[in-house]
Design brief:
Structural class of chain A: alpha+beta
Order of helices and strands of chain A: HEEEHHHEEEHEEHEEEHEEEHEEEHEEEE
Radius of gyration of chain B: 23 Å
Oligomer: heterodimer
Helix content of chain B: 10-25%
Number of strands of chain B: 23
Structural class of chain B: alpha+beta
Shape of chain B: globular
Strand content of chain B: 35-45%
Distance between the termini of chain A: 58 Å
Strand order of the largest sheet of chain A: 7-17-16-15-8-21-18
Number of helices of chain B: 9
Mean pLDDT of chain B: 92
Number of domains of chain A: 2
Number of helices of chain A: 9
Low-confidence stretches of chain B: none
Largest sheet of chain A: 7 strands, mixed
Number of domains of chain B: 2
Strand content of chain A: 35-45%
Largest sheet of chain B: 8 strands, mixed
Radius of gyration of chain A: 24 Å
Number of strands of chain A: 21
Largest interface: A-B, 63 and 58 residues
Shape of chain A: globular
Low-confidence stretches of chain A: none
Helix content of chain A: 10-25%
Chain lengths: 431, 453
Amino acid sequence: MELCSKMVKDAQQLGATECEACIEDTTETIITIERGFIYGKREKKNITFGLRTLLGGKKGFVSGSLPVKSLAEIEKASLRLARQGLPDPGWKHLPYPKGVTHVQGIYDRTLAEAPAEELADDAVTMLTTADQPDIIIDTGRICRTVKTFCICNTHGIAHEYTSTRLDAHFVCRCGESESTWGVSCSRDYDVDFAALAEGTVKRARSVSILKDLDSSFTGDVILLAEPVEDILLTPLTYAVSAGIKKSLIAEQFHKKGASDVITVYDDGTIHGGMNTAPIDGEGNPTKKTNLVTKGVFSGLLHSEYTANLCNTVSTGNGVRQAATEPRVGTTNLILKEGRTTVEGLIEEVKKGVIVGDFSGNINSFSGLFSGVIEHSFYIEKGEINHPVTGVIRGNAFEWLTKVENAAKERRIGEGGMYAVPVLVQNVKIMK
Amino acid sequence: MEEVTDILGKALSNATADLSVLRWMRREQINVTITDGVPRSPKQTTFEGVSCRSLINGSWGFASTTIVTDAPEMVQTSERLACISSRNEFIDIADTEPVSGEWKPVIEKPVSDIEVLYEVIKEVSEAVESVPHITSTSSSILVVTDEKVLMTSEGTHVYQVEPRIMGALTAVAKESGKISQGRQVVGGEIGLEFFEKGFAEVFTALCEKVSRRVHAPLPPAGKTPVVLSGEVVGLLVHEALGHAAEADVAQCESFLSGKIGERVASPLLSVADDGTLPGGFGSYGFDDEGVPAQDTVIVADGVLQNYLHSRETAFCSHTHSTGNGRAWLFSREPQVRMTNTYVHPDDMSFEELCEEVKNGLYISGDKGGSADRNGQFVFITSDAQKIEKGELTEEYFLGPVISGHAQEAFTACTGAGNRETFVVIPAVCKKGESAFVGSGGPAVATEVVVGGI
């Protein structure tokens, strides 16, 4: 905090009209698995900073790693860049203090202090669980991150918080199947490593003998939470970010753009959320923002810059790493769960597929997607028939209007997306 | 550099591992962008740090920090981590001759200050203002200079500078609820002279294409004879063939596994991964294991010749490293990565390729895509133009998704273009970590499945 504050004061003394300094001190401990063995053991300590300097509407941004040989040189460079830059007519000001949001569950001391040996033991747990004759273990990874984020600006913002996170991946195969993966993430040291490996093994076995579709048909698709995140929520994320002239949603504000089943909100305040924090990357307090309410586009995400452009207030969605400039982005993006279960969705399908994974292209900007369905099953008359491969293609924004029902089984994505399975009706499924 | 060499040398003198590799790196980046005529704040980034990789009893440990003077501690931490030995695979690496040397390409017109960069992109932005339907544009130049020192306990000591520059142009056109977008990237290990020569023309051509296809229909779907532009060939050769030829992938399983000496493409095609390509975006003097960069033949006249190797994969295959052990930053461990991967040009003109295809499509523009290790690929292209009776017509389509199997697409090739059709495009490849790469080739005549989206 002291260094952050000093950078701001120094830049101001050098002539900056506004200035913001941000520092991140991150330590990662990583255990990797390759070919069924523990492979790498890494510890990385990175201290990074970002210094945003304003001279009227002219901005300069300098970033990098700490320590630096000369702090004064960095501060001067930031001002020099601002002088050399062209004025941004849309610039108004950096954030003013608005307090912080009281959040819980973002730091776990036990996790922060766990030795690398203990994390290696967790990796061994995954290996031992999956060590079965019909299973080939491809890769795995356990990553513990401890991060302190600090931000100060000339208007009096001065905040610091420390957080932890644990990410675990496990990838294996069974027979001729493509690689199958399992992912688990948490703010606490509460990941069940054996269950993660066991679940991945079970999934690999379930798709070990694949069958191509007999023919293309128009039917129903149940997207499980992971493809919902990839196909539907990722393009939506792009669309609900304010200040993007290219956003299609900006033109459809308060209009119906999805089915009644779809309610989506961004919430940077939830207990233990993967992107929960007391403040955003500019020092504004995090909030909950409704984005799609029963199919109607009801809100946009704002950073301080886009909020000022639109004469509104920031939604606490200026996201960044210290060394990058803030941009509009999501915190925890939540698709509201339905009342039924995945089994309930399956019962609704006369003819279709349930999609566990999607491998292909998704244009987040246009919503166009096309690719192969993986870890998927053919469904007929409300019952799962056999594992299947095929192709789906379409437009995410069109599919959002065709969502007929949603289930309640929630998946927490590493990027902070909280998706649930959905049933999309009347779409083409190709051989 | 003396100070860094001194710190690394002292740290290395206390190393006790079977192999210790110390790397120092400084990355300096300057980025200027103009979006919709509004300049974004110029950005200058400097990352510096040091890492140690230790191999002890067949087990790796790795530690890195941004505090360069902590190099001796990184040696200790790395060795401690290497000694965590529960359920380890025994790892060994191929021998290599220790090298000492320097590498620093000569740049004709280095970037001196940000104002010059702004002048270039301002001119570019203004050049496209009158193109119809264009509602949003963005032009940017990124200058990245990597400076590296690598020292090993085997006696290798190298110093190198990798100066790269990349220009990116994006345009969006909208009309009557229809929208289209295009992106073009240019660059290499070159200077500003490249941008002063024709950056504005490149952007104007991009905007005209994007504008033209706002109302363009989808092309007919199905298996289609096509001429693929050099950049689409580059995408195909990088994503579908190059990754499958990376030894860490091939040693697990790829469609190229165990096929050295077998035909995997038309005899018209030869594919190289050339880390020594002058001006290539993926070029360097030494990889991040201290092995000199090489021009590796992957495919010669359609026959698979080599995989790409780091020292570790080379040991497993009883061969030598091809200098492809690359790390994105000091804080990353090396893995097998491509450099500049391209199909060698042949002798057909673009017109002759169209004649070869007779009736089909000319497909260009790379909007991304993916390929799996089995060689199946799905790519989104940005433009298509009808070829009729062996001639390129003025009938335009939206860029289709193309899909297929890499080996089939390369085997079905009936013609490869000459140097006039040849391009190498800069890109940042993601394979867990990032890597600066080049990919390209000449235009080729072949057959692919056109998806129509």
